[in-house]
Amino acid sequence: MKLWAGRFQKETDDKVNDFNSSISFDARLYKQDITGSIAHATMLGEQGIIAREEADKIVETLKVLLNEIEDGKVEFTKDSEDIHMNMEVLLTERIGATGKRLHTARSRNDQVALDFRLFVKEEIPVIIGMLVDLEKALIRQAESTLDAIMPGYTHLQRAQPITFAHAMMAYANMFRRDITRLEDCTERMDESPLGSGALATSTHPVDRFRTAELLGFAKPMDNSLDGVSDRDFAIEFLSACSILMMHLSRFSEEIILWCSWEFKFIELDDAYATGSSIMPQKKNPDVAELVRGKTGRVYGSLITLLTVMKGIPLAYNKDMQEDKEPVFDAIDTVELCLPVFTAMIDTLTVNRANMRRAANGGFISATDCADYLAKKGMPFREAYGIVGKLVGHCVDTGHSLETLPLEEYQKVSPYFQEDVFDALSLETCVGGRKVYGGPAPEAVLKQIENLKAFVKEREEA
């Protein structure tokens, strides 16, 4: 007989049982459910709502159950619907009527809100730790490629010269924002819903501040209706995960391009690439492609939960049972992608010669050529027009700006002198961009130093 069946005259249809049950997926909340129950029982005993001896017995038995579950000695059943009722049944089987006192002044509504919030709160540091590992891999790649010149692109057209290190630090800054976004998310979810009851707290003198303290929350949630019905924390978490996966997907796209024969800027380690069943020459960037593909799963999880929540009136509604699976799937996906992606980045080899060869083409020093004239006193817009004509002339004659004879330069402007060729060298173009955030080695080193300090703070926290 179900724990809630007192008002009902008929047994629940088996199809409804199967449809209603969530134990198949919320079983993974067992640890959080036990943690919440231990805090609740402790508070009930301290407040004199139940006898101290009974509270101690409940806590002791819950700890035993936790060990048995983790040792694989406990089986959950569909008959008990969800993890909360499974745990209550198991507890009551062990200690009888005392176990039935655990649910005093508590509802499954605030229980599930607590379990779910605890689970997400505990997973965020795991993901942050993985992101920190990725940042360290990017730092290693950047430190070894400060002088590896490559083309920077806009519209996927060669634009201006940068370095591979500069590109790595661009992605490193994206992942840095992902870390702080997750940290912000944690700060906002650091409130306990326990004690909200079904929606209106309890007539028992529960101490919500005590249970929040026992559970490691900063404080209890301020409103009990909000306490049982809020899933903003999960939506915000999925939003942060979606942005993180978008960054991984953008990076994956670059990796896929860079290791193609058309670019050949990098070579993936054999351990992080695959072959073809029919074409023996192939070396496929499957890790990057799968990360790019799995991004859609996480986006789907976010849209799922937003859609579930968009029409739900206060307070709890059964629709909200659909909140966990998308979050679980997003967590599993992110935690699957990050370690293998990090290892792929850490082991790739940079082809400096091919990057340099590409940087020599496409007139990527054209802006520097215009700046050369501007530094000699010509208005930039006039300089821009002159260099545009020079580029057109080079295209017609098969020259580059670096190989065009000085007399050709001087035909369009007397400002051009022999020093123009030094000004247009790739080393000058990159090295001269010392502005904070720029691609010059000293500027990138500053970015690396900043990121190292950021990483150290997280590792020491």
Cross-sheet strand order for the largest sheet: 1-2
How many alpha or pi helices? 20
* Largest β-sheet summary: 2 strands, antiparallel
The span between the termini is: 48 Å
Q: What is the tally of beta strands? A: 6
Stretches with pLDDT under 50, minimum 5 residues: none
Main structural class: mainly alpha
Beta-strand percentage range: under 5%
Helix share, percent? 55-70%
What does this structure look like?
The protein is mainly α and 461 residues long. Helix content is 62%, strand content 5%. It contains 20 helices and 6 strands. The strands form 3 sheets. Strands 1-2 form a two-stranded antiparallel ribbon. The chain starts with 13 loop residues before the first helix and ends with a helix.
Describe the structure concisely.
With 461 residues, this protein is mainly alpha-helical. The protein has helices at residues 14-20, 23-26, 30-46, 52-70, 83-95, 97-100, 108-143, 164-188, 208-214, 224-229, 232-258, 286-309, 324-347, 352-359, 366-375, 380-397, 406-412, 420-423, 426-431, 441-460, and strands at residues 149-154, 157-163, 191-192, 219-220, 266-267, 349-350.
